[in-house]
């Protein structure tokens, strides 16, 4: 499946590798975590109330719809968190309490 | 209708429940609420349906109330999200362990069976608890409910049963004629031979107007809620401690959010009708919440709130007939622990008003206890 | 009152306010939630990105460059606090959270320049992946060099609708349609107000013309019906002005109906609010210079009233003048008179925008019962209507208590205005009768792991 977001420039940046749902994903330095996840995928998380996947909305820290889970049960607001090498994120389920 | 058998001033959970149970006894009722039913202490509290830890002589009333909570759909047509998922009081110190043991022993004669759990058994049954937890007192039939829903649901049920419920109707003055109380409001004058004051933190002003001042202080609870996470924490958790700051509690609602409160309280104003949460108190709660339930540390608080509660000097409510004015009854000042009692208070006040006998012992709560003390009770 | 002057928000209003305070010899605290100054309109791209200002801000490049330069010059002369969230307010102090630590900052004066975000009307499917706000679509492009899709539809109303569509066109996206709920005639009727800023009117026409030349379908006076898709947006269903139904396939949707002020902090700082009939929302009350009713609190920029970035720069400076004067520093009246005079046409233009691109309040009544209104808590219009009907909630806070609408992570920021419309329509009452959601701390989520500074 293609990602939701499409890069239209600034592609000469250094690659950053992260893991999303156990699979390696490549992003670019300077990406927000939201962009890193949505250029390769089409979801950030599941609604807690069973109404389907979510992929953020405002992209500027207002709507709080893009909070993602890290594998170890941490929380990150994807639109305002810069991606970093080695991040491990899950977009399905919620690892709480932490395993 | 401007005349009824009973006028209830104050549409919190106490007033709304009393109205319903009076109607069930065939008594006509007018319920007057200044704001909206359940908008202050009744609607902003933690939502604990907890018996353990209460003042022991209050347990018969709490038991009566618990029985009503268990059949809310039959009584009011909805469950107000009541979840009898158990209640744990958790001890982190020797002193607290001693108190849990003593309370479990002393509560048994009142019909409240508590299970004391320690060590590996505690971790096996409640693996989410802090490893620092040394003992927990488990009350399996206690639980929690949604305070935003309960009082309005009782008021709707009362209305369906024939009570007149007047919201946004502030009482301007109360006079007593030979046979009736005359209650003046912007919506007109209401009259009844019997009057119940169940106006929470504002009850003190009304009692004083009837010549029965009581030592009551308005305070605001410091409540908060986290983002939703998978539903894993069935029982309500509370810290057993005499240190105010440590005394936090939390519950997870089935939708997933974790509601919390406890610790210090903030100022509240009877005049502005608001209690503003002090965000510094929220910060103080956080480490104690994380000690109780370490997994909460990963989450974020998304909302906080407070409300105006009435605290009596002796930390127990005013309930029962006036010592001075015939036909006048009180049920207010529940000191932040009235939510569980609400349905039972309604049933008890209705029985008292309709039959002259409360059905469960309420002697410790009579307003006459302050008249007996020397000097200015405040 | 002790302490410094605190400016919250380092966008156009906040930067110009801080600059004026520095000119007066003060060292204000300048707090910004994000990592970089500039705000949203002049949002900066991250370090290491190379596009020039002209590529990022188009016709506004010079203004952006000037503002960024001003901010950089200020850096050593203010207490600059980026990546800092003001999460609560108490008596003449703010509680700020940075790097997991919360501290209390007392202030002698507080200038709130908190900006605005998109005003949104829900529709079925608006929570699907691929749907963003118009502002979000623009941020993706500006700050991250990404489009929200290769074949987007832009839906809503207001100048941003056309600007974003035009920017996407220039970025190479195959814009499928621009769907505007406002009938074209409204624009004509609003011209007397809009012509207070003729340059902006001309620029708006240019965007429309460019889009039309490129063959982009532009439809006005439409009614949105739903966004469709399995797990991601795939089409927009809408009804044209003649009542005919359409289905436009796409891979992304940007939606927005103008902007709404971010007013939570003003609320927590105890500012009074009043209903603004033109904006059809409750706004914090302030005098012409930005003085809120609360002594020591000032409001500037889109967080006070949405007049755009140019006005925000002037209003920020004006609010700083007012604060200085109230603190006992002499301010030349000519400076303040000039600022006020320059702001006047911008206020008039704002009223024109409200007429040309009205918030489509009527859509709230048409929202199907099963549509989500509150995306945080997944609360449907039907549940909200039941709170107002069967449960009798006469105003939004009561409806929130019964239904959980506006109770989630965003605190009603996204759905609050629409929820009020749904409630008012369900009760058959005017919008002002159902009130506004009261603000509560934290302004944004506060991690439980936050430590309190001693």
TrEMBL record, chain A:
Keywords: Oxidoreductase. The keyword Oxidoreductase applies. One of its GO terms (molecular function) is iron-sulfur cluster binding. It comes from the Bacteria. Transmembrane segments: none annotated. Pfam families: Fer2_4 (PF13510). Gene3D superfamilies: 2Fe-2S iron-sulphur cluster binding domain, sarcosine oxidase, alpha subunit, N-terminal domain. InterPro entries: 2Fe-2S-bd_N, 2Fe-2S_ferredoxin-like_sf. This is (2Fe-2S)-binding protein. The lineage of its organism: Bacteria, Pseudomonadati, Pseudomonadota, Alphaproteobacteria, Acetobacterales.
From TrEMBL, chain B:
GO terms for molecular function: oxidoreductase activity. Pfam families: DAO. One of its GO terms (cellular component) is cytoplasm. Keywords: Oxidoreductase. It comes from the Bacteria. Residues 5-352 form the FAD dependent oxidoreductase domain. InterPro entries: FAD-dep_OxRdtase, FAD/NAD-bd_sf. Transmembrane segments: none annotated. This is FAD-binding oxidoreductase. It comes from Neoroseomonas oryzicola.
UniProtKB/TrEMBL annotation, chain C:
Signal peptide: none annotated. GO terms for molecular function: oxidoreductase activity. Residues 372-424 form the BFD-like [2Fe-2S]-binding domain. This is NAD(P)/FAD-dependent oxidoreductase. Keywords: Oxidoreductase. PANTHER family: ANAEROBIC GLYCEROL-3-PHOSPHATE DEHYDROGENASE SUBUNIT B. It comes from Neoroseomonas oryzicola. Residues 5-307 form the FAD/NAD(P)-binding domain.
């Amino acid at each position: 499946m293609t990602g939701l977001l499409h890069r239209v420039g600034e592609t000469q940046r250094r690659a950053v590798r992260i893991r999303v749902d156990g699979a390696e994903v490549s992003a670019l330095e300077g990406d927000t975590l939201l962009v890193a996840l949505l250029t390769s995928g089409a979801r950030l998380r599941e609604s807690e109330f069973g109404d389907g996947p979510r992929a953020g909305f405002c992209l500027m820290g207002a709507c709080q719809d893009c909070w993602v889970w890290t594998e170890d049960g941490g929380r990150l607001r994807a639109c305002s968190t810069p991606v970093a090498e080695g991040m491990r994120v899950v977009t399905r389920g919620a690892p709480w309490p932490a395993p | 209708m401007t005349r009824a058998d009973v006028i209830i001033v104050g549409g919190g959970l106490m007033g709304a429940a009393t109205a319903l149970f009076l109607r069930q006894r065939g008594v006509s009722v007018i319920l007057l609420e200044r704001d909206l039913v359940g908008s202050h202490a009744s609607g902003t509290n933690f939502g604990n349906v907890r018996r353990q830890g209460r003042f022991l002589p209050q347990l018969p009333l709490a038991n009566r109330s618990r029985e009503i909570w268990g059949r809310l759909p039959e009584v009011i047509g909805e469950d107000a999200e009541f979840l009898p998922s158990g209640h744990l009081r958790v001890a982190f110190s020797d002193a607290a362990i001693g108190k849990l043991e003593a309370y479990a022993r002393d509560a048994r004669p009142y019909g409240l069976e508590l299970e004391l759990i320690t060590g590996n058994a505690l971790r096996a049954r409640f693996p989410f608890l802090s490893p620092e937890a040394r003992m927990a007192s488990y009350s399996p039939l206690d639980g929690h409910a949604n305070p935003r829903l309960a009082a309005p649901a009782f008021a709707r049920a009362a209305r369906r049963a024939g009570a007149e419920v007047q919201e946004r109707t502030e009482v301007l003055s109360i006079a007593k004629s030979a046979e009736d109380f005359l209650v003046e409001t912007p919506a007109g004058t209401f009259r009844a031979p019997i009057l119940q004051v169940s106006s929470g933190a504002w009850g003190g002003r009304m009692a004083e107007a009837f010549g029965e001042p009581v030592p009551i202080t308005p305070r605001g609870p410091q409540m908060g809620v986290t983002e939703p996470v998978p539903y894993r924490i069935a029982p309500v958790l509370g810290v057993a401690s005499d240190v105010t700051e440590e005394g936090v509690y939390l519950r997870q609602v089935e939708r997933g959010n974790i509601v919390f409160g406890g610790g210090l309280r903030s100022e509240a104003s009877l005049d502005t009708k608001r209690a503003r949460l002090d965000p510094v108190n929220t910060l103080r709660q956080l480490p104690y919440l994380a000690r109780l339930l370490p997994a909460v540390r990963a989450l974020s608080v998304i909302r906080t709130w407070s409300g105006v509660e009435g605290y009596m000097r002796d930390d127990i409510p005013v309930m029962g007939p006036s010592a001075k004015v015939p036909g006048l009854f009180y049920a207010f000042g529940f000191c932040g622990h009235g939510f569980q009692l609400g349905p039972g208070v309604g049933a008890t006040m209705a029985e008292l008003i309709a039959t002259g006998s409360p059905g469960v012992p309420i002697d410790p709560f009579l307003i006459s206890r302050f008249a007996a003390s020397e000097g200015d009770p405040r | 009152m002790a302490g410094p002057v605190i400016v919250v928000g380092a966008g156009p209003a906040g930067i110009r306010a801080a600059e004026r305070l520095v000119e007066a010899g003060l060292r204000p605290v300048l707090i910004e939630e994000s990592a970089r100054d500039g705000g949203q309109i002049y949002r900066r791209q991250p370090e290491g990105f190379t596009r020039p200002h002209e590529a990022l801000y188009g016709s506004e490049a010079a203004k952006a460059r000037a503002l960024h330069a001003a901010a950089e010059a200020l850096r050593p002369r203010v207490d600059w606090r980026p990546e800092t969230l003001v999460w609560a307010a108490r008596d003449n102090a703010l509680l700020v959270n940075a790097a997991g630590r919360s501290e209390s900052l007392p202030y002698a004066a507080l200038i709130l320049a908190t900006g605005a975000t998109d005003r949104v009307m829900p529709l079925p499917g608006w929570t699907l992946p691929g749907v963003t706000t118009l502002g979000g679509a623009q941020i993706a492009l500006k700050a991250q060099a990404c489009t929200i899709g290769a074949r987007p539809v832009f839906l809503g109303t207001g100048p941003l609708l056309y600007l974003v569509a035009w920017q996407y066109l220039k970025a190479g996206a195959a814009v499928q349609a621009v769907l505007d709920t406002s009938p074209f005639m409204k624009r004509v009727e609003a011209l007397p107000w809009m012509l207070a800023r003729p340059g902006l009117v001309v620029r708006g026409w240019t965007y429309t013309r460019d889009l039309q030349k490129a063959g982009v379908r532009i439809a006005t006076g439409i009614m949105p019906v739903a966004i469709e898709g399995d797990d991601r947006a795939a089409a927009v269903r809408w009804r044209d002005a003649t009542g005919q139904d359409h289905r436009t396939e796409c891979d992304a949707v940007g939606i927005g109906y103008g902007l709404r002020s971010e007013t939570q902090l003003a609320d927590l700082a105890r500012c009074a609010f009043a209903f603004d009939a033109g904006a059809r929302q409750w706004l914090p009350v302030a005098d012409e210079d930005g003085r809120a009713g609360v002594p020591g609190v000032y409001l500037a920029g889109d967080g006070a009233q949405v007049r755009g970035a140019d006005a925000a720069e002037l209003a920020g400076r004006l609010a700083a003048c007012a604060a200085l004067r109230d603190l006992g520093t002499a301010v030349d009246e000519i400076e303040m008179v000039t600022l006020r005079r320059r702001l006047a046409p911008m206020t008039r233009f704002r009223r024109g925008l409200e007429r040309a691109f009205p918030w489509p309040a009527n859509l709230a009544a048409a929202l199907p019962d099963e549509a989500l209104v509150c995306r945080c808590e997944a609360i449907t219009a039907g549940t909200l209507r039941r709170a107002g009907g069967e449960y009798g909630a006469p105003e939004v806070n009561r409806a929130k208590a019964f239904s959980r609408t506006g109770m989630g992570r965003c605190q009603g920021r996204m759905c609050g205005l629409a929820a009020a419309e749904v409630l008012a329509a369900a009760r058959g009452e005017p919008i002002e009768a159902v009130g506004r959601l009261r603000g509560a701390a934290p302004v944004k989520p506060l991690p439980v792991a936050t430590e309190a500074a001693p």
